[in-house]
Amino acid sequence: MNFLGYLITGQFVAFFILALIVIASAILMLNFNKVMYMALAIGGVFVGVAGIFFLLNAEFIGIAQVLIYAGAITILMLFAIMLTHEKDGESNSKGWIHETASFVFVAILLAGLMYGIRTSTINWSPASDEPSAWPVGQNVEAVAASLFQTYTIPFEVVSVLLIVALVGAVVLARKEE
Amino acid sequence: MVPYLNGYLYVVLFLLLGIALPVGALYLLGPLLRPNKPSAAKLSTYESGIEPVGEAQTRYNVRYYLFALLFVVFDVETLFLVPWAVSFKALGGFGLIEVFIFIFFLFIGLIYAWNKKVLEWK
């Protein structure tokens, strides 16, 4: 099926739905006045991004996105809010001058970006038709191969980084008590 | 590639069902089936049958945050172990040693947290 010169596939439709979820959640996050709602809206952004990863056949990254970002990070943010928050912030409406000015700025930015993209002379190499070393649906194995065989040292350093995060959190929380 | 992604249609189907079920039960079928007798007591917050006390938005104990952070750290650890478990045979002994070093470092972190009495609840 063709529409305005674009081939409409299920992937195409799914991408637009997911993009809509991501952008709508991001805008809601900026517009909510309650911090709690903001944290939940950013959870929506994470879930939408996970969907886009699935669409790109990157299941492992998609699951990681759901598990870590949509699950753990959002919960951590909610806890942080419940820990500190005293009152809901007041309305962040800054009047029409502010809004018009930001609209004009964003419009100019968009026009500049579009102009830059349309007139760019960078030769992007086209997507190759060669099958990759790892067939679709085997990207956990692909991740394992690069994580445990190619990038061994960075993988071990990750554990040190995790310890640093843990110790830092314990120290900060102890101080607060 | 397309037939592979088509498998996700089931996921979408389940997602839609999951949204449709509560919405249908609460807003479409519910009002038709249940009697409508609103009273002030029914609108109050349910707190296990006791009269609700105070506000819902209170300041939490910092200990909850520590538990949440410990959870995130070990969640990330689990995520790194999944690809190792999936291709355990292909990675062999070298992969096993790597993962043991990784777990050893995080075990030190757990011992540290234990020593600092993070896991205790006074």
Describe this structure as you would to a colleague.
The complex is a heterodimer of chains A (177) and B (122). Chain A has helices at residues 10-31, 35-55, 59-84, 95-118, 139-150, 152-176; strands spanning 2-3, 6-7. Chain A is mostly helical and 177 residues long. Chain A folds into 2 domains: 1-89, Four Helix Bundle (Hemerythrin (Met), subunit A); 138-177. A two-stranded antiparallel sheet of chain A has the order 1-2. Chain A is extended, with a radius of gyration of 22 Å. Chain B is an all-alpha fold and 122 residues long. Chain B is built from 5 helices and no strands. Chains A and B meet through helix 3, helix 5 and helix 6 of A and helix 1, helix 4 and helix 5 of B.
Structural topology:
The complex is a heterodimer of chains A (177) and B (122).
Chain A: E1 2-3, E2 6-7, H1 10-31, H2 35-55, H3 59-84, H4 95-118, H5 139-150, H6 152-176
Antiparallel strand pairs in A: 1-2
Helix pairs in contact in A: 1-2, 2-3
Chain B: H1 2-6, H2 8-33, H3 40-43, H4 62-86, H5 88-115
H-E order of chain B: HHHHH
- Tally of helical segments of chain B: 5
Please tell me the overall pLDDT of chain A: 83
CATH class of the largest domain in chain A: Mainly Alpha
Tell me the structural class of chain B. Answer: mainly alpha
| Portion of residues within helices of chain B | over 70%
Series of secondary-structure elements of chain A, N-terminal to C-terminal? EEHHHHHH
Strand percentage of chain A lies at under 5%
Most residues in contact, chain pair and counts: A-B, 49 and 48 residues
* Number of discrete domains of chain B: 2
Question: Largest sheet of chain B, described in full?
Answer: none
For the largest beta-sheet of chain A, the strand count, sense and barrel status come to: 2 strands, antiparallel
Which shape of chain B, going by the Cα principal axes?
flat
Gyration radius over CA of chain B: 25 Å
Count of the separate structural domains of chain A: 2
Could you name the ranges of chain B where pLDDT drops below 50 across 5 or more consecutive residues? none
Which structural class fits the helix and strand makeup of chain A?
A: mainly alpha
